[in-house]
Specification:
Blueprint lengths: L1 E2 L11 H22 L5 E2 L2 H16 L3 E3 L4 E4 L4 H6 L5 E5 L19 H6 L4 H10 L6 E5 L7 H14 L4 E6 L6 H9 L4 E4 L7 H17 L2 E8 L4 H14 L3 E6 L1 E2 L4 H6 L4 E2 L15 E2 L3 H14 L5 E5 L1 H13 L9 E2 L6 E7 L2 H11 L4 E4 L4 E4 L14 E10 L5 E11 L13
Parallel strand pairs: 2-12, 5-6, 6-7, 7-8, 8-9, 9-10, 10-14
Antiparallel strand pairs: 1-20, 3-4, 4-14, 11-13, 15-16, 16-18, 16-19, 17-18, 19-20
Helix pairs in contact: 2-11, 5-6, 6-7, 9-11
Length: about 450
Amino acid sequence: MIIISLDTFDQINDTAFKAYAKHYMNIEQRALSAIGDYGLSFATSPELSHYNHKLRQQLKQRSVKFANNDKSIYSHWLSDACKACRTGEGSYTTFLSLQCHRNCYFCFNPNQDNYTHFIQQRRDAHNELQHLYDSSIPLTHVALTGGEPLLYHGDSVAFFKHANKLFPNIHSRLYTAGDPLTHTLAKQLKLAGLNEIRFSIKLDDPLKQQENILRRIAIARQYIDTVMVEMPVLPGTKQQMCDLLVKLDAIGIDGINLLEFCFPFNNVDIYRRQGFFLKYPPYDVFYNYWYAGGLAIAESENLCLELILFALDKHLKLGIHYCSLENKHTGQIFQQNYGYSADDTYMYSTRDYFLKTAKVFGKNRADVKSFLKRHTLPFKEDHLHAFLQFHPKYISRLVPSTMEICLSSSVVEQESNGNFFIKEVQLAKTSPATFHLSDIQEQ
């Protein structure tokens, strides 16, 4: 299956298919141009993708787990909260404030809705939980992030007490830079029912400050059931990251989430100074995603995969999870598409959560239409764009086996009047000989 993009557009042979796909090439071109206006260049060397493929093959040979359509890769252990994050089902994350005592140049909070408001004003996370409970929303996971939630340590403790009162079996987690944590506060959080705490570590902090955070992590290890580190991985920090993994393993934390490092659409001068480039292509599917993290930086993913291999080679006990930027997007697509009753020319993909349909153009339409009618199988015709649309499960039954098939991916959106509609967002090229339903459906 070949995803149709500016790089692969010329591989389409059917003129009607090509004319139809041209619209998506214009969308991609405009998106790339708009991204370029931020002033950071793309890394387009094929060597990066070749090396990425090599690393992934090595990890698969080591029996490392590949999940969520290969967007989540981990060894040894993975938090239940990370598994829930893939779809967002039963999972709720909120904050008390976006105030933070740190000033990380890669922070994406300024991209959040109402950022200025929540720097100055507090969010009523307590009543949000109450509203979810009163609405009979079945929560299984809840998280408190920020900003820095422990700047308001009393309210943070009260939040987890309230969460466990309303949802007694809930899995609760806290995100923190770690500086404000003390023995007393860790004990209070434990008594409030906190299950999991995630620390962030900045490698550009002075070594003394990093050691201070490691001591805070060791304190948490004495009280909280699950202790993790979650941090972006910057290109060029391999030795520092390897040293950190060894130290964290010695403390005995449960695991670390290695996040794909991102450009948050600001502080471009700092990114340029450090020689960072944007990952290309910037998205698997060009779409408007809710997650405000920005755009992935080239080489971060490859370093994350190298670190998993390092941990395996050194026999480290902690779980290591590579969480890609694309892994952050899947919950949105799942929530938009899951349960939508599309017509019977569509199927819901359990692999990437998009709605899928097959299309044929030009001279192939008549043959495919005849086959579908002969077997009383559903189809639709679009005379404006000269295609016939049908369910993807029939692709492999078509002849000739070399027939050019368009596989379409769509999302469900809602209009201002409340009506829902299906929006096509990506095209791929396949054929009866090369297509397998397992490409889009978990078996």
